Amino acid sequence: MDDRTRAFQDHRDHLVGVAHRMLGSQTEAEDAVQEAWLRLDRSDTGDVQNLRAWLTVVVARVCLDMLRSRKSRGEQELGPKDVDATVESPEHAMATSDAIAVALLVVLETLDPAERVAFVLHDLFAVPFDQIAGVVGKSVAAARQLASRARRRVQAAGAVSEQDRKRDERVVGAFLAASRDGNFEALLAVLDPDVVLRADPAAVQTASARVERGAPPLKDEIRGAKDVATTFLGRAAAARPATIDRAPGAVWAPGGQPRAAFLFTLAGDKIVGIEIVFEREAIDELEVELER
Questions:
Q1: Angle between helices 140-156 and 101-108 (to 10 degrees)
Q2: How crowded is residue 175: how many other Cβ atoms within 10 Å of its Cβ?
Q3: What DSSP letter does each residue of 57-85 carry, written as one string?
Q4: Which terminus of the chain has fewer Cβ atoms in its 10 Å neighbourhood, N or C?
Q5: For residue 80, is pLDDT > 70?
């Protein structure tokens, strides 16, 4: 087995999980992943630094084409008995093991293809919106809105349980409390080992200008629980819990006006992604409800 094949096999379970969530069919998911392999085999990936991310985007594009083709043919939406919720890998099992897995897949079938892709990539697999924008062929702001609309429909349909919503609120609350208290171990406890922190250009620029006043050194992307925990250690005193696009988050809102937003992506009881949004236009597009 050559290095390229070995690298692909290392990520195959993840890719099948992504494709299955998008397509609702194990067979079609396998087909999408096979197509991704063919594209990898035909591509020069010598300059690709993150093959997993590259392959995730390729699979997403393949799935989007399949969803659009399905819609153009006028295929009937899958019903509860038609949805294939087969689990074949540990990673896939984590993504589909709860009692509402089939309900979620059924709701996803009702979404526009671009909405479904944006929601699955961001909310379930923590793919950043700049990459999602490239997949769906829209701006970052538009990609964010696609995911937001999909999230509202998923939640309105009851495909996210109240128990899960409460759990997410507890996890985000624990993160904010640990950050305010400067409790490094408590921060690590709620962060996935491979958590990714992403900040928009305005956030990076603002942090850089305020380093001498105690702002954390910020980059557009920080990976790993220890580095992310260090970035937030003792620094959330001004953050207010909020519901952002119907998901638990936090904002910096002097005078009650959101000036910065902290968006969280969770998998189970761990935070796998954090996005810091400072861009004015992006903030205005978010649906923010401050907690009283």
A1: 130
A2: 26
A3: HHHHHHHHHHHHHHHHTTPPPP-TTT---
A4: C
A5: no
Q: 1-5, 223-227, 245-249, 272-276 — which one is most confidently predicted on average?
A: 223-227
* pLDDT tens digits, one per residue of 50-60: 888 899 999 99
State the Cα–Cα distance between residues 202 and 278, nearest whole angstrom: 5
Amino acid at 70: R
- CA–CA distance, 97 with 157 (Å, rounded to integer): 19
Angle at 144 between CA 250 and CA 12, to 5 degrees: 100
Dihedral Cα 20, 23, 28, 33, nearest 10 deg: -60
Using the predicted structure, report yes or no on whether residue 150 has a pLDDT greater than 90: no
What domains, with CATH codes, occur in the chain?
3-156 (1.20.140), 162-290 (3.10.450.50)
Residue 91 has pLDDT above 50, yes or no: no
Listed residue (99, 145, 105) closest to 124, CA to CA: 105
Contacts of 16 (CB under 8 A, 6+ apart): 26, 29, 30, 33, 88, 89, 92
Mean pLDDT for 208-214 is 74
